[in-house]
Amino acid sequence: MKTADALESRSALGRNLTFGLLDALGRAIVTGAYDDKPFPIEAELAKQHAVSRSVTREAVKMLGAKGLLTARPRAGTIITPPSAWNWFDTDVLRWLLERKFSLTLLRQFTELRLTIEPGAAALAAQYGRPAGLALIQQGYARMEAAERGVDNPLTSDIAFHVAILEASGNPFYAQFRDVVTTALQTSIQFTNRYRGRSASLPSHKAVLDAIFERDAERAAEAMRLLIDDVMGLIKEATERQRED
């Protein structure tokens, strides 16, 4: 007989039980709910969430594909260390954002951006097609609108940066859009809170102008300076944290 707690848990999973269970368990793992206890066996998970063994088995299999779980002889299913997780997986990235805010994670995100976005800006300047350049222009126009209070500062900033990845014409850079989006969600909220204002329009305009003028070197440097500004704030906040 299913308990009230189990039925409530099942209801929270939504219409697709497998993906609902995947989301619930993945979030629990990444946010540390199992840090001080072993991961439940399949039968226990099925009972806790009032789902079938097949649903549970499939969700656990998917978590294994994301690098969060592994099965070992005589040890059962165990949670892997964070170094084994697929950090480029969109679900894992989303769950990471739900953990307690971490300056270390933000720094790591920003370091990754420094290796990706200047190169994408250079390629957009060199090879950007009219449609891709138009999306960059639209992203910047949205940022201007956000300054006037008629658009969202977070989504408009993200739209600008993602458009540059897409305009690079390189599918490998374009594949980083989810990672960069996640990094920016954390970064923009941090800088707005820490600095008390939204993104610098002149810094973004410098990137835009260099791309439209087909100056790859200047586009890369303008993007690097933009992200370096964020890195400087992170270092400053880290130093203050150490002093407290």
Indicate the topology:
Layout: H1 4-12, H2 17-30, H3 42-49, H4 53-65, E1 69-72, E2 76-79, H5 90-97, H6 103-127, H7 130-147, H8 153-167, H9 171-174, H10 177-195, H11 201-212, H12 216-243
Antiparallel strand pairs: 1-2
Helix pairs in contact: 2-4, 2-5, 3-4, 5-10, 6-8, 6-10, 6-11, 6-12, 7-8, 7-11, 8-10, 11-12
Description:
The chain is mainly alpha-helical. The protein folds into two domains: 4-84, Arc Repressor Mutant, subunit A (Orthogonal Bundle), CATH 1.10.10.10; 101-243, Four Helix Bundle (Hemerythrin (Met), subunit A) (Up-down Bundle), CATH 1.20.120.530. Helices cover 71% and strands 3% of the residues. It has twelve helices and two strands. The chain has helices spanning 4-12, 17-30, 42-49, 53-65, 90-97, 103-127, 130-147, 153-167, 171-174, 177-195, 201-212, 216-243, and strands at 69-72, 76-79. A two-stranded antiparallel ribbon has the order 1-2. α7 runs antiparallel to α8 and α11 (201-212) runs antiparallel to α12 (216-243). The N and C termini lie far apart (53 Å). The model has no long low-confidence stretch (mean pLDDT 89).
